[in-house]
Amino acid sequence: MDAEPKNTGGKVEPWGDITPDAARRLVSAAVHAFAERGYHATTTRDIASRAGMSPAALYIHYKTKEELLYQISKVGHERALTILERARDSEGTPAERLADAVRSFVRWHAEHHTTARVVQYELGALAEEHHAEVIAVRKATDGAVRSIIEDGVKAGVFDVPDVRGTSVAVLSLCIDVARWFNAGGRSTPDEVGDLYAGLVLRMVGAGGQR
């Protein structure tokens, strides 16, 4: 999706560009149901009830429960890719771009931790064709991070013996925020983003270059 999501009270709404309103409500309801009960334990009736609609109304917009999961996964992964590509293509040193990528990626996973848990951990429930499409986007996100790290290695500012493995480690570290982040906890999304940016720079041997 090319359209920018809506911003509500300073927080970007992931589903802001999904229309009509009923379809958007169903996606939001599905996210919370999948996060709470798991994809397989959630029924279409559960989702429709959360959206204040009848099961029959759900099928007008989404033919199957899997189609809802695909919509969530697709939008979520595209948002993640946009964040990382923006950092990759920005001005600045490799260290500045890597810190920006991590900071923004972590902040998104913290701010939208419920959505991110579904996006990142329910991939196995997607149909084969949909799974392949989402995996292609995931590979592109890995490529964006790997590109920044490669730039740092070429410039002699990163000490990374295994670029591919380090890229996977960086992404895994950031994604895991969705699993444990608590909106009522001690740290804000911005604070966690700053912390992780510093950790990753030290990981690549550039701790003093923020």
TrEMBL record:
SUPFAM superfamilies, per this entry? Homeodomain-like, Tetracyclin repressor-like, C-terminal domain
DNA-binding region listed in the record: 43-62
Q: Which UniProt keywords apply?
A: DNA-binding
Q: Report the residue ranges that make up the HTH tetR-type domain in this protein.
A: 20-80
One Pfam family in the UniProt entry: TetR_C_24
Which protein, by its recorded name, is this? TetR/AcrR family transcriptional regulator
Q: Which organism is it from?
A: Streptomyces javensis
